[in-house]
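FW: tagging you since you asked about this chain on Friday. Here's the raw sequence from the shared folder, copied in full. Didn't touch anything.
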Amino acid sequence: MASDPRPAAAAPSDGLALGDSGAGAGALGLLGAAAVFIVAVVFFVAESYFMATLLISFALLIYVAGGELGKLLKSSLTVFFSSKHLLKNAIYVSDTVHALRKSLHMRKDEQGFIKVGPIEAGTKLKLPDNPLVREIQAVLKRKKGKEYAEYVAHQFYVDCRELYDHFHAHLEFVANVMPLFGLIGTVIGLIGMFDRLGSNTSIENLSPQLAISLQCTLFGAILASVYMTIASRFDQRIKALEYDYDILVHSLDVLVENGAEIEVQA
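HL: got it, structure written out here
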């Protein structure tokens, strides 16, 4: 009998999923960044260096994120203060893997490879009711094979992985650039200090310019650390998602090889 050519239908996309415009910020990001940068210059001239540096970091975020800035901020808060994945499909992967690890008695061997406990042909497994499990159930019932099963798993994995990579890259960019803006402020302060050097120069005359140099360096480093810390949370989620995906694919291979059947828990 000919196999069904229709691809597996993943769960409906969440509001945080990347859209067609996710490839770049475009003109909106550039204009928004320019406006915020001008405000930052005003604060710098008014000698409010922390606000100036903070606004510059926001300008960089707007530049790389554009219209996705709201999604980026919401995702960053969720990832930083919660242990849950951002998209439902990734949650389905995590829940399914958790149940499969118990049902298949998975463990790591001495080399760190995942091993599955003894499983008989035609074994019936009970898994939680979610769209991924129902797709796996259909694949096993119709005997689609390993390649199709892995395709189904990838459909539920790829959107969240791309979202994490996307936002991680934005935050990492800002974290890498902020020390450079701090260095620019430092150079501006040093130039002003050297301009005031003369035979009658005192520490009191040089201290404001020296303060600019030190504060800009400090604030740039602090904000870079903050953005890098948030970016690292996305990196942790990427590693956790990859680990779950590897286990899911390995489990599907075992289930297909042994002709297992899936029963959805009520």
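FW: Residues 1-9 have pLDDT under 50 and may be disordered.
HL: agreed, and The helical segments are 26-45, 49-65, 69-81, 88-103, 131-142, 146-195, 203-257.
FW: great, closing this out.
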